[in-house]
């Protein structure tokens, strides 16, 4: 029965896409809209205010790892199904929750606008809906994150800083907006900065030998040592004469993941930085990209200093920049 319904939906979808004889990817669609990391929930008010809504918030508004304050993965806004029409359908990322239908979850691309990612979650009753939400949330969230990352990078490309400094020093290209400026340039180290209200967004680029990170099995310990040595050498605190400099926060170990950047293996580290001997701290994101051809890790890192302010969107912009790294 589930397979039959899915095939029926697919047929209806394709017919709607081809009513003018066009192939699905040739349809003329409006540009999507919406703030970065904003998800619209199309769900009945009673469901949103009850256990189903709680399951949605638990999964899609979960706290972002590596931030000093609690901030949600996505900002959620809810509307009842009868209001989902017209301009609202252009929202780039949305979830439609439908009760009284067979239990399943589907991800659909470019349904009403482009680019757009839609998740359709259905179930016969609240219990089934909650089960489907919990089972499918990771896959759906990953699809939304990919969509939002591409959109952020697309927006940044409108005003990129264009020069060859990073190519000359590291054989690296990095797409960052012209609002960033070079704060410090040394032989094996570059510091790029963007001023924001009551703070700064910072990007560091440097390289280390492969064995500096992979000398033993304590990878996270080696990355912390590497970061702290860079902080001591290049990132002073307000009173450097008293030994103040940036370090990895000592109270909590950062999160470590394995990923890929530019098709190359990379260590992704997320955590909190602080200044030794001073009350300064904030989130950081570090990618150590393995360049085996040159026996090195190219390290691209971003961090934010903006006391008492939300930093999720700042860090998302930094992530979009760092993920654009391309080693030549």
Describe the model.
There is one protein chain. This protein is an alpha+beta fold and 328 residues long. The protein folds into two domains: 2-156, no CATH class; 160-327, Protein Transport Mog1p, Chain A, CATH 3.40.1000.10. 30% of the residues lie in helices and 32% in strands. It has helices spanning 2-17, 45-48, 51-60, 126-156, 165-170, 210-213, 219-234, 312-322, and strands at 30-31, 38-42, 75-79, 93-99, 104-109, 113-114, 117-123, 172-173, 181-186, 189-196, 199-209, 246-248, 255-261, 264-275, 281-291, 296-305, 326-327. The strands form four sheets. Strands 9, 10, 11, 12, 13, 14, 15 and 16 form an eight-stranded antiparallel sheet that branches. The chain starts with a helix and ends with a strand.
Give a quick account of the main beta sheet: strands, pairing sense, barrel closure: 8 strands, antiparallel
- Shape summary: elongated
CATH superfamily of the largest domain: Mog1/PsbP, alpha/beta/alpha sandwich
Order of helices and strands: HEEHHEEEEEHHEEEEHHEEEEEHE
Structural class estimated from helices and strands: alpha+beta
What is the CATH topology descriptor of the largest domain?
Protein Transport Mog1p, Chain A
Tell me the β content.
Answer: 25-35%
Gross CATH architecture of the largest domain: 3-Layer(aba) Sandwich
Share in helix: 25-40%
Instruction: Give the termini separation.
Output: 51 Å
- The CATH class of the largest domain is Alpha Beta
Compute the CA-based radius of gyration: 23 Å
